Amino acid sequence: MRLYKPLIKKECLEEIFSARGAALYLVVIGVLSVFSLLLVSNTELSLLENAQAVYMMSAIVMTLALLIIVIRGGDGFAGERERETLETLLITPVSPAEIAVAKLMGLLFTWLIVFVLSMPYLWAVGSTGQNLLSALVYLFAAGTFLVIIFGGFMLALSVRMKTFKGALSIGLTAFLLSGSPILLGSSLRQSAVGRVVDLINPFATALNMLDSVVVDSLGLLFQIMPLAILVFYTIAAIWVLSMTIRRVEL
Amino acid sequence: MKALEINSLKKSFDGMKVLEDVSMTVYRGDIYGFLGPNGSGKTTTLRILLGILFPDEGKVAVLKLNPSVDGARLRQRVNVLPESHGFYGWMRAEEYLRFFGQLYGLQLTTTDCRLQLDKVGLDPADIRPIRTFSRGMKQRLGIARSLLNDPEILFLDEPTNGLDPKGRRGIHDLLLNLNREKGMTVVISTHILDDVERLCNRIAILHNSKIQYEGSLFEPVVGKSTRYRFRVADDKNIPNTWNFPGILCQEKKGQWITCEIKDMQPDNALKFLIQNGIPIIEAIQVNSGLEAMYLNYTTQVKE
Predict the structure, then answer these.
(1) By CA distance, what is B102's nearest residue in A?
(2) ipTM over 0.90 threshold
(3) Nearest residue in chain A measured CA to CA from B142
(4) Residue B141 contacts A where some CB pair is shorter than 8 Å
(5) For residue A122, what are the domain limits?
(6) pTM score, two decimals?
(7) Most confidently modeled of A184-193, A207-216, B288-297?
């Protein structure tokens, strides 16, 4: 743990003090402000149920967080390589695995910041409803799993890719593909293919879980299957990262 | 006593041979110049020595450790100034040193960091973020970082890049002091032959993926004469011209004396002069014999 601590601290401080980090959070605040305003006004006009508005807001928070994770994860090793700071880290007694763990912790810190920033907006949208607390709990849990999944895969990708742009383009494509089942029409999603695609896609799994908790008010027992899928992907992401990180090339 | 030894090292990238049968030895206390044209494989060799790149074939031992196996343990005892080293622009110099100190298990105080910055000629009171630093300032900061763990071997890749003549001289003095006072072994990869002449006692020239020359900087010059400039500690008792067998000194300007050395190894000549009461503290080859030697070895056509 001796070496992890300064590395994790550096990753977290970089989130706040680097120009790109601060800009991303400003974008998050702007987007959340616009969407919360829309959702609150729709709820007030009885165009949208309160639970539905909370679910939609949670989905927006999760999507925004994952978008930042994809960007920052892609930057993890490839960006440091481009900025020529990776070599300076590798020539210290720190192992690449320790650097990867610190970067993953940094991504979790990013998620924590986005989650904290989103809380007043979620409260503004859902304070008059009943499922706000469970929405917050499940959003945090599912978001944490997704951050490790997407963050782990993105870091592994950025170890192998020479440039940040390369890692980002592949990462964003994968992110869009994982989000595409959400964009399918409800009839397509109810088909056998749609159900399978929904089931094997961690992002859709997390959103479906939120839907069933917030909108349908289903309990933990109904969430065991989606949670198991998320745990499976989390283990897979950590395994892929640990395999990729064995040899880091400059 | 050997500080590092490489035997028959081979490394290829995508089928292109970068290092082919490279062998070299650096002894403890050496200031070793590692020369070669761009793309000759110097940086690759340094990375292999540090265990951040793995050789295809060959044996490498640094401080009796195998870098491919004991990389982390080795890097605790050595340090390096890479040629292209980036900085975390949002950090301040002191913060930067403290961060890297922690990676070596050191808890540096503000005083420690400021002493280190002062040592390399940076203003310890400068609290600007590193992104505002000039190239030369960044180079100095990089050198300060590379000295943090008091390394037994210090690898420097183009250490005086971006420094003005005064700054270069300051870094030369710092390295010479570290070598003399702490016995630090220094391996310098550079194109600046003046740096090598001023600092190094042994050199290797890497070209066409192979070591073309390894040995004393003072190459054997039997049958040829070589000119050297010697700096003496005290010039008052030294005559303007003097003559020893094989050593003819005819020019004296202040502390500097220019001598012609013939049919003699210059390091033997140096020893001879010191034994005969000439208090020499610095020796520089004139007419850049090194440059001629470098060009000779690096213009050979690949077999």
Answers:
(1) A6
(2) no
(3) A88
(4) no
(5) 4-244
(6) 0.80
(7) A207-216
